[in-house]
Amino acid sequence: MVQYYEKQCYMQDFAYNGRGPDAYFWVNEGPRATRDGTTVPHPAGELPASPLEEFSGSNEVVLTLPNDMKTSQVGNLSVWCKRFSINFGDIVIPSRRPANDE
Length: 102
What we know:
By secondary structure, the chain is mainly β. About 0% of the residues lie in helices and about 45% in strands. The chain is globular.
């Protein structure tokens, strides 16, 4: 389950095996993950962002978008390997998101 707020995405039961050598949460304006995206630090505010470690599947993840970015500007959220430009999994964010100020 994924919920969207003005500056945050909340994911329940997120799983990732941690095997990508340079993988990050990544957002793109369009509906597909591309190398032109933006890193979303996790945990929020960790700069520079560290590559993702394993998530067991029982994790709740809250991502806070960087800078002045809002979910209304995002079309895709992925786990992206910067080094090899590989998408390890993604979701298309619907163009109509709930109006919520969180």
